[in-house]
Amino acid sequence: MKNKKIPLRKCLGCNEMKPKKELLRVVHNSQGSISVDTIGRAQGRGAYICNSKECLDKAKKIKAFNRAFQSNIPEEIYEDLIKELVINECEN
Questions:
Q1: Where does the chain have alpha helices with state H?
Q2: Which tens digit of pLDDT belongs to each residue from 50-80?
Q3: How many whole angstroms separate alpha carbon 77 and alpha carbon 33?
Q4: H or E element, residue 28
Q5: Could you say which of 3.10.290.10, 3.40.50.300, 3.30.1230.10, 3.40.1190.20 is the CATH number of the domain covering 9-91?
Q6: In the prediction, which pLDDT does 9 show?
Q7: Which helix (H) or strand (E) holds 35?
Q8: How high is the pLDDT of residue 91?
């Protein structure tokens, strides 16, 4: 049998390639809103980040989300990401 290919994505914070399921997806949709995609299937351009505060802080510092979405990212998006990281840590 053939081994199933695991989709890899690059983290905006640490620039490491990791399996898609291990990363958190942030989506910029056609209406211009930015949100955390908890199910991984939302429409729009997606960017990925590790489930660690260090990667989020680094991505924020180097404005990686601004580059990925070609727009300014509001502070509340970073707050939502921090909340999502805390939820993911509690589940694991």
A1: 53-61, 64-69, 75-91
A2: 989 999 999 999 999 999 999 998 898 899 8
A3: 10
A4: strand 24-28
A5: 3.30.1230.10
A6: 97
A7: strand 34-37
A8: 76
Contact 71, 56 (CB under 8 A): no
Residue holding tokens 């989020």? Answer: 56
Q: How far is 65 from 46, CA to CA, in rounded Å?
A: 10
Rounded to whole angstroms, what are the CA distances from 5 to 2, 16, 56, 74, 80?
9, 18, 27, 35, 31
**Domain map (residue ranges) of the chain:** 9-91
- Percent of the chain residues past pLDDT 90, beyond the cut: 61
Residue type, 54: E
Q: Which two tokens stand for residue 49?
A: 């980040």
Of 23, 22, 29, 64, which Cα lies nearest the Cα of 43?
29
Distance of alpha carbon 48 from its chain centroid, rounded?
Answer: 3
